[in-house]
# Entry
Amino acid sequence: MRSHRTTARGLLFLLLVGAFAGTAKAATVPAVIAFPVVGNVTFTDDFGAPRPQGPHQGNDIMSLRHQPAVAFEAGKVEKHFRTLAGNCMLYLHGASGMTYVYIHLNNDLTAANDNLGGCKNGVAYAPGLATGQSVRRGQLVGYVGDSGDANGGMPHLHFEVRRPTGVAIDPYPYLLRATRLLYPQPASVVPIYLVFRKAKVVAVGDGTITIATRRIRVSSQTTSYPLQRTLVLTVSTGAIIERSTTSGRLVATLASASVGMVTRISTLTFAPSWATQRGGAGVLSANRILLGAG
# Structure
């Protein structure tokens, strides 16, 4: 009888190992992914570069303090921090079976390196974010900073891609093909609007305005972030168009917008979605246009 039980256990073990190996082998980064930082960034392929603790296991995405970090793919999050180093970290366990590591999240309360915020929601992590929580692709999960051994250096996100076995692979090819987003998707599906500050008019069409964005704020969030890209907006029928003058704001028309003019634009409210995050031509509509003001 013992021999039969031993044999059964051995077969079960082999089946489990085989199943895990099959899952690990099948897991791969999805075809459609979100770039993990929203806004202007720079990065190089520094995977494997020498570091004091060993070869670099990810890519450093250089950005500004407090820039939004978003989910690379849909999955579940695990918040983690090292108290000795003060390193605010997050693991995203993707639905694909891959794991993504976000390191050096923000721990500052101001624009300076004050180290007063700690690894808390609203500082390092998205408001209300909890370990085990499911997140959508492109959803806000945290904010870029310089916590841990990056303290005092240029804020950046150390981003890793790991197989189910825990082995890190080079994120660079995936970052190159990841979709750059216009805004981070909030956890709530409540409609939002975007505010484009200090944008410049690129072109004006029949019921459309093309702008070069500079800085963006999401209505549900208190901070803005830098993002430079060209965006085509439709102009809603009831849009309020004004021009800023020394005498105050005057009623204007779309035709009075000229190329190069600085403008501030608010969109109509809309339901957050992958389509609106990509910001394709005409997907979003302008609701308020203030010409000649940033």
In short: The chain has two domains: 42-177, 194-291. The CA atoms of residues 93 and 99 lie 5 Å apart. Residues 1-23 have pLDDT under 50 and may be disordered.
